[in-house]
């Protein structure tokens, strides 16, 4: 009897051991399957991204070709500034949307580095006063440090740009909001100032190393209100009007002084400086600048 019980116990032990081995093997197989599935998913996503990048190159070339065909770029861009152009096939297999905005719709952030540049004092003062106004309004912890970081980015590590070095702004400087936002992030981490993220920088500043004027006809209501000291609600009503007057007429009719800022404004001149964004496919996007008939700074943003 004892011998039979011993045999039964041994058999049960073997079965239990075999079950443990089986479960261990299954765990390894399941883990490997999960890894392989995630790998295949990643490969599939990479392949889709590669295909989307190739498509972006084709669309980019086609769009530039069409833009160059227009003898009067002002007419097409004035429409693009107001309404995006969307293309879509009935079956939904192809979709593309082109949006463009003036590069110079705000006060150029690069003007902050023009204190010592001949003939640019008004540009510098306008940018400096706006920066200080926003810093006070949003109670930034260390506005001087933020300004220093901005100047370093514009002047390639130099705190101030001398007159003889002003060409560096055109060759380098801050050329996009994405570049500027990285400065904001670094400042926020360094100073631990969360309030900087609440400042609506894009409503007041533009980010281009070319813009020498403000294309105020397309500026935000907030900037127009600030520039000409006109009530924000009044500006918004004017912008929403279907038969609105020119900016100059509106400003003069509402107690503003258009001539005081005239040297900084594009007026009726078309600046030919635009930033365009193209969305297509399953959420892919790329951007580029179109400046005086030439495309610059193509950037593929992937899927969003």
Written overview of the protein:
The protein has helices at residues 2-69, 73-82, 121-137, 143-154, 167-171, 177-191, 201-204, 221-228, 232-240, 247-253, 258-261, and strands at residues 85-88, 95-102, 107-108, 205-206, 273-280, 284-291, 294-303. The protein folds into 2 domains: 1-103 and 271-304; 107-264, no CATH class. It is 52% helix and 14% strand. The strands form 2 sheets. The protein has a 5-stranded antiparallel beta sheet. The protein has 304 residues and is of the alpha+beta class. It starts with a helix and ends with a strand. β6 (284-291) and β7 form a beta hairpin.
Tell me briefly what this model is.
With 304 residues, the chain is of the alpha+beta class. It has helices at 2-69, 73-82, 121-137, 143-154, 167-171, 177-191, 201-204, 221-228, 232-240, 247-253, 258-261; strands spanning 85-88, 95-102, 107-108, 205-206, 273-280, 284-291, 294-303.
What tags apply to this protein structure?
304 residues, alpha+beta, 2 domains, five-stranded antiparallel sheet, two-stranded parallel ribbon, globular
The structure class reads alpha+beta
Can you summarize the main beta sheet? Answer: 5 strands, antiparallel
Helix content: 40-55%
Mean pLDDT: 82
Strand order of the largest sheet: 1-2-5-6-7
Give the low-pLDDT segments.
Answer: 39-44, 157-170
Q: Categorize the overall geometry.
A: globular
What is the tally of helical segments? 11
Strand tally: 7
The SSE order reads HHEEEHHHHHEHHHHEEE
Portion in strands: 5-15%
